[in-house]
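RESIDUES AND SHAPES:
===
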Amino acid sequence: MNKTVTCFQRSELSVCALRTTECGECLVVSGVVGTVTVLVVENCGDCDTQDLMLNTAAFNVLSILPIDIPVVWEVVPCDVSEGMKFKFMTGSDEYGWGIQVRDHRYPVADMCVIVGTICQPLLKMNTNYFVNNNNITAPFTLTIVSINGVEASVEIDAIYSEDVLIHTNVQFPNVC
């Protein structure tokens, strides 16, 4: 399936979003002339509850006319073939950091850092970064929890600059 990002750019046909979905969710959207799989990357603050606004590439698969069209959609697991990737937030250092998960099969609901035998929760921001303000330094283990309760753990060996994408072999397993 083609995966096209929704809510990526803002133009006449690509404002994007859906209030009833989670960032990181994949949707199969069917329109007048086609079907496309999209990734929700942000929520629309001024949209109606059921509105779905797509970028131009996704919209063009669904319609031949540049007008609002009726669509049906369903949530599906994201079609990922590699491990999750992690990116640190701008300004992250040993005293405080934020980290974002990318390329995950299911949306991320929670994340915590293992400190001794305790999983210390991280604060989820509306940017989908999870923030640590408790002076937890690398290396550390993250436990990532999907919206369907599936957990995965990954070792982070250092705090990197925001331009580094950390590749892993860790992925949420498929669940029925």
